[in-house]
Amino acid sequence: MADAAPRLKGNLEQLTGTPLPVRIRAWDGSQAGPPDAPTLVVRNRRAVRHLLRKPGELGLARAWVAGDVTVEGDLYTVLDRIAGHVWERGESDTRTLARLRDPAFRSAVRGLLALAGPPLPPAPPPEEVRRPRRGLHTRHSDRRAISHHYDVGNDFYEIVLGPSMVYSCAYWPAPPPRGTLEQAQHDKLELVSRKLALKPGQRLLDVGCGWGSMAVHAARDHGVDVVGITLSREQAAYARKRVADEGLTDRVEIRVQDYRDVADGPYDAVSSIGMAEHVGSERYLEYATALHRLLRPGGRLLNHQIARRPHRDETSYRVDDFIDAYVFPDGELAPLGTTVSLLERAGFEVRDVESIREHYALTLRRWVANLEAGRARAEALAGPGRVRVWELYMAASALAFERNRIGVNQVLAVRTPESGASALPLRTRTWN
After folding, report:
1. Which of 110, 113, 122, 252 could form a disulfide with 243 if both were Cys (CB 3.0 to 4.6 A apart)?
2. Rounded to 5°, angle at Cα 23 from 17 and 28
3. Which of 159, 80, 65 shows the shortest CA–CA distance to 375?
């Protein structure tokens, strides 16, 4: 009798204490759950073994990346419905130990063990980063983490990001289809340039320059001299070619360099777009101080950074398991207030903060659509597992921005001189 799906559903509901909001179809063809709900397809027993080895987010992610779990129906709907079961439970170690003493909980675990079968727990997919979490954010560990994420292949990123090759939140004048991704990314780069008040002859340091989009935009459209730094050799090679193709080699220099090693200031402006998430809480004040030192008095910093919501007890924060293991090794998110405070401690005067949270959700959904449209080529370039990593990461992130679980902010700060003359207009923005 085919009964794996109802047994799996019952055991999972017993573990979580709530009804499962999706339908399940198991490897034996059985189905269980709401008939009109999107379907989570559990393709084999190995998926259950992944969940037993690492209950919760990481186990489900491993099963997804390995191709042992798939979705029929809208991926966003499935992720939104199961978020409370997987990503937002936030159980403490004390509660977990208490549940282990619950006979119903132990019964559900025994049921899952019976479904999983006798083989040993499966190894994590090869796309997972396995390294000790010590010595974080040294020059060596940062190079390794950046290489894991960005040295996937420039051709792969062209599929996801499109012609703009900008890997950060776009700035949409209107939701798609009225606005295109390429125009929205151009508008974001122009917004950064306007906030920095870039003028011909100035020097700009672009920290975490990616594939050179900001550097090219600033030099071509605003006449500034740019130094872009990245730890990714593949990014640097791509950016240098773009610079050469634009005829800007006399205005733009792309370096493979750590921010801690930049010593040729002063600069008139610094852009840090989607870079600070890699710095880490232990190094953030050092990072902010280094940027402050590199600016001339009166120079401006535009810090474009993802933020998480603050915790009542900040010591309880831990890095997201899936993102740490598969996407951004050693990456950390900080609350906006923490970032502003550290910039001020470094000597900056914070003059403007703009939240563009909804813009990132629109951007991510466009990237997911690009990946789906180019899936066959993306899999040929990076492998099916890597494509599944990116599909899950970007779709889940889009929902996180839409549901206000995370945000993204542009913080404009000035190295204000002792005279107090910031050189900013009395009103930096107007409201509709």
Report:
1. 252
2. 110
3. 159
